[in-house]
Design brief:
Blueprint: H1 2-23, E1 26-28, E2 34-37, E3 42-44, E4 47-49, E5 58-63, E6 70-75, E7 78-80, E8 92-94, E9 106-108, E10 117-124, E11 129-139, E12 146-153, E13 156-166, E14 171-176, E15 188-191, E16 197-205, E17 212-219, E18 224-231, H2 239-349, H3 356-361
The protein binds 2-acetamido-2-deoxy-beta-D-glucopyranose (2 copies).
The site of one 2-acetamido-2-deoxy-beta-D-glucopyranose has 7 residues, from loops.
GO molecular function: signaling receptor binding
Protein name: Ig-like domain-containing protein
InterPro entries: BTN3A2-like_Ig-C (IPR053896), Ig-like_dom (IPR007110), Ig-like_dom_sf (IPR036179), Ig-like_fold (IPR013783), Ig_sub (IPR003599), Ig_V-set (IPR013106), IgSF_BTN/MOG (IPR050504)
């Protein structure tokens, strides 16, 4: 019984191994590097042998020159964007219509300097995996060198040469008219975010019989070079006019400087005087204002006094009026008294004395 069970297990295992073996595959691609010109679209070939479908498998493209090396992933019938190297975003794809026949080639668009490297094509099924690595080389010929004159330097003429957009990193040399290398400063190289190189280098040249100098930027791996020749007029090397002109310009500068400072001094002096005058004027006006205020107060007081006087006088007048009325009344009373007296006397005297007296009284 036990033996038959074991035998059964063996048969199953053998069967499983057989099926697994039948699913095994190889991943293949080109053995030579793929050379890409910057800006082009390229295909990184990779395929299964035998040509079984990769539609249900996981396809990874990795750039081994990066630490987080994911360039592209296809899994569960979908493209996976997570963990993709940012510089590849939107530039990678598989040929979906080719997957069923085991073609897992990668399309990479707008090739740039940072794309150079070793790409691993890794394909995994449920029970098997294999990979293949293909190298990509990126070539970019940079711009024609630009030479600029920097002026007199250490008894010679300073020149600068600059060229950009290279891949891989180029070499920059300065040559005289006979093609002899000139000793120059250290080359300065800068790599931009797309991985292209800019190179520049200073040189100090002495006057020669031709005054022709060449800046050459070359890249031996891609066998490319770019040159720019410059011819310097010999007057440029003549330091005398340069000295005279510099002296003249110094003098001019000094004169302008003096004039400027004098003007500034004069303006500030003038300003001071005007300010003093204005201050004085302000003080005078303040005093005048104070005086006027005092005067106004005095006048007000006078007015009040006068009003009071007027009131007093009015009262006095009223009093007087009253007194006069009283006097008049008294007089009238007196007159009346006198009249009645007279009447009395008249009455008494009528018969005795002459009527002429009566007339006088009336
Ligand atoms: C797969 O390969 C065989 C030969 O190896 C070929 O005859 C066949 O056409 C290929 N199939 C596809 C889908 O490419
Ligand atoms: C894979 O597909 C691409 C795009 O159609 C094609 O250029 C390439 O030759 C194919 N590779 C193989 C091995 O069939």
């Amino acid at each position: 019984m036990k033996v038959t069970q074991l035998g059964c297990l063996c048969v199953i295992l053998l069967y499983l191994l057989h099926t697994a073996g039948s699913e095994s595959f190889e991943v293949l691609g080109p053995t030579d590097p793929i050379v890409a010109v910057a800006g082009d679209d390229i295909i990184l070939p990779c395929y299964l042998k035998p040509n079984i479908s990769a539609e249900d498998m996981t396809v990874d493209w990795l750039n081994l020159d990066f630490i987080d090396d994911r360039v592209f992933r296809y899994q569960n019938h979908r493209n996976i964007q997570d963990d993709q190297i940012p510089s590849y975003r939107g530039r990678t794809s598989l040929f979906k219509e080719e997957l069923w026949r085991g073609n897992t080639s990668l399309k990479l668009t707008r090739v740039q300097g940072t794309d150079e490297g070793h790409y691993k094509c890794l394909i995994q099924s449920k029970s098997w995996y294999d990979d293949f690595t293909v190298q990509v080389l990126v070539e970019a010929v940079g711009s024609k060198p630009v030479v600029s004159i920097e002026g007199h330097r250490e008894g010679g003429m300073g020149l600068l040469c600059e060229s950009e957009g290279w891949h891989p990193e180029p070499e920059l040399v300065w040559l005289d008219s006979k093609g002899v290398h000139l000793s120059a400063g250290l080359p300065e190289t800068h790599r931009d975010f797309k991985g292209f190189y800019t190179v520049k280098r200073h040189v100090i040249v002495q006057e020669t019989d031709t005054n022709r100098f060449t800046c050459r930027v070359q890249q031996s791996r891609i066998n490319e070079k770019m040159e720019t020749e410059i011819h310097l007029p010999s007057e440029l090397f003549d330091t005398t006019p340069w000295k005279i002109s510099s002296i003249v310009s110094y003098c001019l500068g000094a004169i302008i400087g003096i004039c400027l400072s004098l003007t500034i001094c004069w303006i500030s002096y003038k300003k001071g005087v005007i300010i003093d005058q204005l201050k004085l004027q302000r003080d005078d006006l303040t005093k005048e204002r104070d005086d006027l205020t005092k005067e106004r107060d005095d006048l007000k007081k006078d007015k009040d006094d006068l009003k009071k006087d007027k009131d007093d006088l009015k009262k006095e007048k009223d009093d007087l009026k009253k007194v006069r009325g009283k006097s008049c009344l008294q007089i009238i009373t007196l007159i009346d008294l006198f009249k009645s007296c007279c009447v009395f006397v008249e009455h008494k005297v009528e018969s005795v004395v002459a009527p002429s007296f009566f007339f006088v009284i009336n």
